[in-house]
Amino acid sequence: MQDAPGVLSDKVINVYKMEQAFWESGDALSPVKFGTSGHRGKLGAGFSAGHARAIAQAVARLHTEDGIKGEILVGGDTRLMSRATAELCAEVLAGNGLNVCLARKPLPTPVFSHEIISGRACASLNGTASHNPPDDMGLKYNPGHGGPAGSELTSRIERYANEFLKEPGLIKKTTLKKAREQGLLSERDLVGPYVKALGRMINFDALKNSGLRIGVHALGGSSVEYYLALAQEYGLSKLKVVDKTCDPTFGFIPLDHDMKIRMDPSSKYPLKPLLALLDDGKYDFAGASDPDADRFGAATRDAGLVHPNHALSIALDYLFSHRPQWPAGLGAGRTIGTTHLLDRICAAAGRKIDEVDVGFKYFVDGIRGGRYALAGEESAGLSLYGWTPEKDGILAVLLLAEVMAVSGRDLSQLYRDLAALHGEPSYRRVDTPVSEEARSKIKGLKASALDVRSIAGEKVTRLRDSDGIKVYLEDSWLLARLSGTEPVVKLYAESFRGEAQLEKVLSEGAAALGIA
């Protein structure tokens, strides 16, 4: 079969070639560059054994310079080179005399964070490339607060790691055997504590007693064992993991919209097998997590695949009325490209909302400070009050299942109620290829220099240029952000005046920003 979205690829993935690229990448390595959550690249020049060792040595230097004490948790997801990456990092950290806990099995991103905030680790190195194609690989660093590292720390790690890439002879390392003998390397249960802690976040009794039939797809990722443990711990006989396959090539995942294998739980194409089970009537609710389980997907028979913006809105409204034990007046946080329906829900409840730049690292202070009932982003990430300052796809899936179990209603019905009460937003994201000249122009856009008074007949009420350029209108908004990895500008828009107005906002806004 010819490659097409929603079907299996007809290409054979060469595992040997991927492994060889990791170990024998040569001298022309791309520099270490931390994005919103870590360094990531194609196996070979983009991410190699050399990158793993250099980043680990950079972290060791950081901890030594700053006098950070404690055990560093090291592990990764189910990707081909995740285990090797984790072991290389452990060898380097232990070679620098630092204590390391090496995960025996694939580990979700939220578990790294949970171990840190619980005091069992002082930081973590996590080998993952999230939901990216199987030949991508990366490393995330979480410091002592448990969330993604901020710019100050990642800048230091980048600088140090690039020095070690140029001078690999400066990297200190030992063997795992010697590290164990020296008492620098340990292993422990990393499933039980997380599973038990979720008991105070989710109403498992409601899930157990509702009879709601829940199908979960881990998309070949690290959450398989965790969903199984949760079902056993809380007696969720109606929760089934529909596919337990863990294949590092992810060849059993249908192709995404761009003909790539991408384990994105918020895309209908990789989730086609799960959605088919819903259509067949086998489940009432379906959930999914990506390989490192920091993103979520949710679907019902009536709603189909629920847009992350809709899921966040439903969850926030539910939490405001179903968590009486939480402090009164908790607000919410959302990223700059996420729906403003959250703002309207907060306003109706007399709560505050924070808008932050893209990246969960910008929620760390608000989550740790206990300001948010929910913090979320349109790319299918959320966390809750009293939980980790890191995205948690497992938590999100269970929360949305709880919403259905307690309300006895479909998520689509709940969203229609919200839209009827607060206004129904039309939302879209368009990725547009741009020339280098146009890219430079967009990158240099500043609010102070943008003379735009109205777009699509709506008055411009505010401008923001902290992360791309965002134009706020009376009942709509427009955001242009450059991709950090491709010559593409991401254009987001939302309007509470319907689809026709959204089209005008997109077209006139793109022209006003020089994108059209």
What key attributes describe this structure?
about 525 residues, alpha/beta, Alpha-D-Glucose-1,6-Bisphosphate, Chain A, domain 3, TATA-Binding Protein, 3 domains, six-stranded mixed beta sheet, six-stranded antiparallel beta sheet
SSE layout:
Layout: H1 15-23, E1 39-42, H2 49-66, E2 72-76, H3 82-95, E3 100-102, H4 109-117, E4 123-127, E5 136-142, H5 151-166, H6 176-181, E6 185-186, H7 192-197, H8 204-210, E7 214-217, H9 224-233, E8 239-243, H10 272-279, E9 285-289, E10 296-300, E11 304-305, H11 308-322, E12 331-335, H12 341-348, E13 353-356, H13 364-368, E14 372-377, E15 381-384, H14 393-407, H15 411-422, E16 426-433, H16 436-443, E17 454-455, E18 458-464, E19 469-473, E20 476-482, E21 488-495, H17 499-512
Parallel strand pairs: 2-3, 2-4, 3-6, 7-8, 7-9, 12-13, 12-14
Antiparallel strand pairs: 1-5, 4-5, 9-10, 10-11, 14-15, 16-21, 17-18, 18-19, 19-20, 20-21
Helix pairs in contact: 2-3, 2-5, 8-14, 11-12, 11-15
